[in-house]
Amino acid sequence: MPAQGPIGVFVHHNTLHAFEDLPFERAVIEAGGWFGAEPFAAEAEYRAAYARGRILGRDLEAVLRDELEPDRRALAQRALLFTFEEPSDAALDWRASEGQLDSALLEACVTRFAVRSPRCELAPVDTSRLIHPTLIRLVAAFVDQGVAYWAMPGREAGLFAAARALLAQPAPPPNPWVHRVTRAMREADGAPAELAVRALDALGVAEADWGDFVREQLLALRGWAGLVNQLELRPDRVPARRVPASLIEFLALRLVLEREARAFLGERTPRTASPLTEGRDLRVAQAAYGVFAGEGGGLAALEALDADAVSALARELAALDSTERRRLWHLAYERRHAQEFLGALAVHRPRPAPRPRFQAVFCIDERAESLRRHLEEVLPEVETYAAAGFFGVAMYYTGLDDAHPIPLCPVGVTPTHTVSEVAAPGASRRGERRRTGRRLAGKLAYDTDLGTRTLVRGTVLSAALGVLSALPLVWRVLFPRAASRLHVPLPEVKTHLDLDFSVEEMARIVGELLEEIGLTEGFCELVLVVGHGSSSLNNPHESAHDCGACGGARGGPNARAFAQMANDARVRAQLAARGIEIPARTRFIGAFHDTCSDAISCFDLETPPPSFAELRAALDQARARDALERSRRFESARLDWSPSQALRHVEGRAVDLAQPRPEYGHATNATAFIGRRARTRGLFLDRRAFLVSYDGSRDPSGAVLARVLASVVPVGAGINLEYYFSYIDNARYGAGTKLPHNITSLVGVMDGYSSDLRTGLPWQMVEIHEPVRLLAVVETRPELLLAAASVTPAVVRLVENGWIRLATLDPDSSALHVFRDGGFHPFEPEPIALGRASSSLEWFRGKRQPLEIAEVGG
Amino acid sequence: MIGWLARIAVFAPIAAFAWLGLARLLGRRASERSLTRLVSLTFVTSVIAALGLAGAMILERRSSEVVPLGTWFSSGTHRVHLSLLVDGLSVPFLVLSSVLCGTVGAFATRYLHQDPGFHRFMALMLLFAGGIQLVTAAGGLDLAYIGWELVGITSALLIAYYQNREAPVHHGLWAFGVYRACDVGLLLAGLVAHARLGSGAYPVLYGAAPWPAGAPGLAGDTATLVAFLLLLSAMGKSAQVPLSGWLPRAMEGPTPSSAIFYGALSVHAGCYILLRAAPLLDQQPGASAALVVVGLVTALYATVVGRAQTDIKSTIAYATLTQLGIIFAEIGLGLRLIPLVHIMGHACLRALQFLRAPSLLHERHQVEAAMGEHVTRTGAHLERHVPASAQLWLYRFALQRGYLDALIMGWVVGPVLRALAWLDRLERKWIG
Fold first, then answer.
1. What angle (nearest 5°) sits at the alpha carbon of residue A30, between those of residues A25 and A31?
2. So what's the ipTM on this one?
3. Which candidate in A115, A329, A391, A521 could, as Cys together with A46 as Cys, close a disulfide (CB 3.0–4.6 Å)?
């Protein structure tokens, strides 16, 4: 079942997390069977990639060499290059009649290779039509967090009890199904688990088949079942009101309804297969045609084969079915990507920042890659670093404008500290005025909105004042950016953070982070710490664009808290004892980057140091360039815009009610580099690389590396694999197109009127993604990496089973090793000539498509 | 001048649709950008013409003007003339519908960007806009019926917009079925008018005096019949009880189509056609009383059911239905100006709410932050006004949407299907 919790806090997961014990290639195929989903992209897509040079001939050859015995390679190659989807009589006939095929050869192939297949039409009893509307409504009402005006009565007693009490109520109309449910619920007494067992017995399911049957039952509405399961496992993740969710109760309800529905439809056996027609399976015949056509020798070559040879060939071809072909294609696709990235790393000469005057720490998020690069290009004296965007500060945080504390740290961590933003001394009166003003405005907005939906207030409001809503309607739709600037004027309040940490704890947090990223000496006057998040309208998946390291929330407060800690003289004194001397003139500044509007705001700058103006100007230039680089991927943005035009465009996107693609989020993420920035500085990585600062020369034991891997690998793999699966099969693993999405119970989205809860990512988020497994390169030696990775079981599982690809780059040379079959092997990338450009702008200007890695600047 | 402005306001969308259809017929497929330009141009033209029309009517102090369009067909001495009627009722509606269509059209060009069905959506949107303008500005039941059908078919096709899933198609068919059954009312009303008066034109049918005054051309049982036929057709279009089940089902399409059809314009077409018939209804206490009863029952039903809905689009759908019921009742009570204002305000309000629906989480978060608390407050009505013994019953009633669909399936669709099956068997027996 999907591991997705309530959508308001979206955490990226490996969609097939439950399959991680299997090797990747086997897992996707097996899971594909369970979910009826695709394991790899469509063959046509790979072939298109081959045609445009994204996969090269030598990639295919290399993959075939690695994966198949020598005598099968030639055949496989022909099968890969000559196939078309879903052959049918009609399609083949048509192609033959169009002269695309040699019809004599085709006929011979069909005669000798077509397989007669009794087409078994499963005639399952479709009970979903009866069960789902009721079940969906009940569960939605049960978990509702505040959409409905009336909450479900009696839900404190649990789903089953509440549902039973409701469905036992008399129902008037002449509908036998409704009556049947009513009667069944009146008779259902006992604990849910007991009722579930009784229902299984009544359904005639043998005890040995319970597992499969229950799985099928749960997966029939897997979004809802998964949500109930998540709320049971993590009751703290519920947005507003805890409900006593329990999967067994959901199952019991489902099974009781299933039993009634089957009885109602007059069916007792779970499934009956009735052979309908006898059809021809043309897949092998089609592949055979590919073998003999053209250079294969044509009809003559086919006729030269005896019966044994034909059946041997048929077996071979059957083994090369669509899944196998796509597996091979996919490996070739990933190989090209690996060759490019590893090749670029090998030839790129380390480029340390010349005489740094500023330092800036970003999140490891691949969206920060472009911002860092532009900042370095605009102001070469900036040295940039990256760490997981909660900057080691795990906390519950309440902002001045927030109602409740929210956890700001990775999902796996439970914070033990609480931090609040409070009005600075002397500003408390203003703070009070602001709070009162906001409360009034909020209450007015909420009551009006609610009022329009009631009977009496709704009549008065819509008749008397409704016409007024034409103004915001027209204004917000036609001029979103201008409309967003209009809001109730509230007093600005000076604030600071009330940190509930001891000095020792703060020193540990700051010290560990600085050691991790390798910034323990040579501090500049200003050190910027940049958290990130994303704000957009018309986007139920808004939180999926926030910082993953903050558990799907905005990391500005973490950056601010970190800076406040690092500026604390007591903390610095303790750090000095640890060997980290921060000069008194050094100042840390917290900042927040909105990845949707590309706004950057800095905190606590009442008395900015003189050099700050220069940094701020560079930031403004960099974010405009960043906006332009992002815009090049939006079809609706023009390619000839200037950076400032692009900035205005993305600002508009963030506040546009009609915009289903406010930003592309993590789409196209593909690689991770864990090492010193100097090794990647000056490389144009096209916003595809998670960059983690790590300096192996300060970590001889590998202890820091183990910590970095434990926090970075599962998060990176979760993001990468969620995008992979949501792209590969958007209808089943993803959430489908977001245009008909309907927010339900404040916990998720349905398609339109009533459907399963849609988990995963919508198409509009992943449409430009390139589905490859994360390729993580660590700047260290293989034996150190093996030792460091083996500390965390989750990392071991992901690496050994190939859910991520791992490689090392030697700290002192350009030697590469890749992980394969349980160990690291030296890797010699194909020679590569990197493109060169004077700046990133020059490299991507006017281009829409994904770009190759290039050396830019300096 | 007035005539031309009216013609442009009404026919601009249809002309654009025809242009699009012709291009498609000739194998030309417009790019998304040029289609966006065409849609914008069309709606800007339509809005300007509608506003110009309103200005011209005020400046020239005209209260009512018939714009002849020509003769549709003639048979013997019977001629069917088509015309537009611009007056104090149709002009505000023309302005409203062109502004809303234009706004939602602009929304849709960004919202559906790169959707595989972009062309289909825009074509249907233009056709719908033309249909609703025809209903609004029609000078008689004939032209109104054409517009009415265009609105109906585009509505069903947009509910079923996602053809590759089963549910949208099923629900589109549901709405289509209800529409067809109720459209009979409008069709028959027009036929009766032609049979008795020789014309379906409003000045003949409802009197030539400016709306809402006028002396209806029909009297007696015929007049009663026509009033009830109009009521039937309006009940279908405006989803009154017991036909309400299609309205929440219509939420399958993309958000902007929900906004324009089920929040703003299409659902109000039923109210409009009844308002237009005001002079007739004034003389028909029976039909007016029925209107009040249907409206109040619908309002009560919708407000009860709406309170238990847990998804945002159904919540807004039932809120819309509540007000539609109230508007029906207002019309039945003989009010004229109030329902007119009510419809206009309500249409704008709901259009905005539907367009904001996908932002619910964002807005809720902001409101909660501002208020400093979780707003899970639930209505106390259930506990306060309903006896404890009936609370569970009422909640189930609300959650299962008043069993209206089960009722229709059990009492109408089921018997019809059985009758058809019986006829089918009979036919087979006779033939073979």
1. 100
2. 0.92
3. A329
